């Protein structure tokens, strides 16, 4: 049990493991919202960025609180039927970073709401969108501390040079996510 981030009653934290094309994604949360998504470390790119059918909860499926059900449904759609993510609810988040009013929170919300599937922005562009054009470095810090990767799509933030830049899940995973989105977007455009 973790204490609720506002110092109220403790959360009953549950954990779920989603088997994805990227490996085992660990998701934790409570009735109030998702606490964190932990991506696996990758040393090899999975073959192809085709939608995968093999995307299911392999641990913790019993008694899953609603935010975790929404989170796993959203991630399954992201990997298997990306065109449907826009119609799915984004789960509630219950991480201290997303509760406090801060530039980091503002950047993460801006990224979630304004940078769509298959798009990419530079750190500087995201700083502009979040209301502080000189805060590109702070945007980098916000990306590093993102507790909800993929749903809050920090992989879509790249360097102004076009270089992909760093990523918590590693460079290979960032490249896979970007190419997965690009391929799916092209398919939908056909």
Automatic annotation (TrEMBL):
Its EC number is 2.1.1.63. Residues 20-91 form the Methylguanine DNA methyltransferase ribonuclease-like domain. InterPro entries: MethylDNA_cys_MeTrfase_AS, MethylDNA_cys_MeTrfase_DNA-bd, MethylDNA_cys_MeTrfase_DNAb, MethylG_MeTrfase_N, MGMT_N_sf, WH-like_DNA-bd_sf. It comes from the Eukaryota. It is found in: Nucleus. PROSITE patterns: MGMT. Its cofactor is Zn(2+). It catalyses: a 4-O-methyl-thymidine in DNA + L-cysteinyl-[protein] = a thymidine in DNA + S-methyl-L-cysteinyl-[protein]; a 6-O-methyl-2'-deoxyguanosine in DNA + L-cysteinyl-[protein] = S-methyl-L-cysteinyl-[protein] + a 2'-deoxyguanosine in DNA. GO terms for molecular function: DNA binding; metal ion binding; methylated-DNA-[protein]-cysteine S-methyltransferase activity. It is an enzyme of class 2 (transferase). Residues 105-182 form the Methylated-DNA-[protein]-cysteine S-methyltransferase DNA binding domain. GO terms for biological process: DNA repair; methylation. Keywords: DNA damage, DNA repair, DNA-binding, Metal-binding, Methyltransferase, Nucleus, Phosphoprotein, Transferase, Zinc. Pfam families: DNA_binding_1, Methyltransf_1N. GO terms for cellular component: nucleoplasm. Involved in the cellular defense against the biological effects of O6-methylguanine (O6-MeG) and O4-methylthymine (O4-MeT) in DNA. Repairs the methylated nucleobase in DNA by stoichiometrically transferring the methyl group to a cysteine residue in the enzyme. This is a suicide reaction: the enzyme is irreversibly inactivated. Belongs to the MGMT family. This is Methylated-DNA--protein-cysteine methyltransferase. It comes from Prunella himalayana. The gene is Mgmt.
């Amino acid at each position: 049990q973790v204490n609720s981030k506002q110092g109220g009653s403790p959360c009953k934290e549950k954990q779920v493991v989603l088997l994805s094309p990227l490996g085992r994604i660990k998701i934790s949360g409570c009735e109030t919202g998702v606490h964190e998504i932990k991506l696996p470390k990758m040393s090899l790119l999975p073959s192809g960025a085709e939608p995968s059918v093999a995307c299911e909860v392999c641990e913790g499926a019993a008694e899953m609180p609603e935010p975790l059900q929404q989170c796993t449904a959203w991630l399954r759609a992201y990997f298997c039927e990306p065109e449907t993510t826009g119609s799915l609810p984004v789960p509630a988040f219950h991480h201290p970073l997303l509760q406090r009013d801060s530039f980091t929170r503002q950047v993460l919300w801006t990224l979630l709401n304004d940078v769509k599937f298959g798009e990419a922005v530079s750190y500087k562009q995201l700083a502009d969108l979040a209301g502080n054009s000189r805060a590109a470095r702070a945007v980098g810090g916000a990306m590093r501390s993102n507790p909800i990767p993929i749903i809050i799509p920090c992989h879509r933030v790249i360097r102004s040079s076009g270089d992909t830049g760093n990523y918590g899940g590693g460079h290979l995973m960032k490249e896979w996510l970007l190419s997965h989105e690009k391929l799916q977007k092209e398919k939908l455009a056909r």
